[in-house]
């Protein structure tokens, strides 16, 4: 009686190669979405050597965002679309007359000059992140609009373009050296003082 043959063996030697090729395929073709965020660089920590200066309330532009995404600007309800214009008017108000390039109303109840003007942003813990980012963009946009205006007046270029070229490591050193003082001058004219107050739970 002839012996029965066993089940034929499956050659699995090439399975590892196939799995490896599939892994490489998915790594190459898969795209990973990046989350939107804010580009911020924190200043180096320096222990306070003296008491902080007293800041007048009129030099603080308060922006509050509640859990429903509503804005309370200087204790008044405001649409997000009007925020940039209101912040711009505050930053270049020039109440003390020391800012000769400001085009503000010189309202004595508003900020003295751009160096003293501070924007304070406060939000609720349940505020939507998209609303928070939009408000941040509008406030930073107010600074950029003013800086672009002065850069155009002084150098015939947008500040955002000048700053991008200055920060780009591929920009030739001679060009970066030329931009350094120009960028700093515009930044000093409208220093970005955007303060974020502690989040509330109301």
UniProtKB/TrEMBL annotation:
Gene Ontology cellular component annotations, sorted alphabetically: plasma membrane
GO MF terms, alphabetically ordered: transmembrane transporter activity
Record Pfam families: ExbD (PF02472)
Membrane topology classification: Single-pass membrane protein; Single-pass type II membrane protein
Domain of life: Bacteria
Keywords on record: Cell membrane, Membrane, Protein transport, Transmembrane, Transmembrane helix, Transport
Main location: membrane
Entry's Gene Ontology BP terms: protein transport
Keyword Cell membrane attached: yes
Locations listed in the record: Cell membrane
Family affiliation: Belongs to the ExbD/TolR family.
Protein name stated in the entry: Biopolymer transporter ExbD
Species: Flagellimonas oceani
């Amino acid at each position: 009686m002839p012996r029965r043959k066993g089940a034929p063996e499956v050659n699995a030697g090439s399975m590892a190669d196939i799995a490896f090729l599939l892994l490489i395929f998915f790594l190459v073709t898969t795209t990973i979405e990046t989350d939107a965020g804010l580009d911020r660089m924190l200043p180096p920590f320096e222990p306070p050597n003296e008491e902080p200066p007293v800041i007048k309330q009129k030099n603080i532009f308060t922006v509050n965002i509640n859990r429903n995404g509503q804005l309370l600007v200087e204790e008044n309800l405001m649409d997000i679309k009007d925020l940039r214009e209101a912040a711009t008017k505050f930053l270049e108000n020039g109440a003390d007359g020391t800012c000769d390039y400001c085009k503000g109303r010189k309202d004595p109840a508003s900020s003295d000059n751009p160096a003293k003007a501070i924007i304070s942003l406060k939000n609720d813990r349940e505020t939507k992140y998209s609303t928070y980012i939009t408000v941040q963009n509008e406030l930073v946009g107010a600074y950029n609009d003013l800086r672009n205006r002065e850069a155009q007046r002084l150098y015939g270029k947008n500040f955002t373009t000048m700053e991008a070229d200055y920060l780009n490591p591929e920009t030739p050193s001679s060009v970066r050296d030329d931009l350094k003082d120009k960028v700093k001058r515009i930044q000093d004219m409208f220093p970005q003082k955007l303060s974020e107050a502690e989040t509330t739970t109301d």
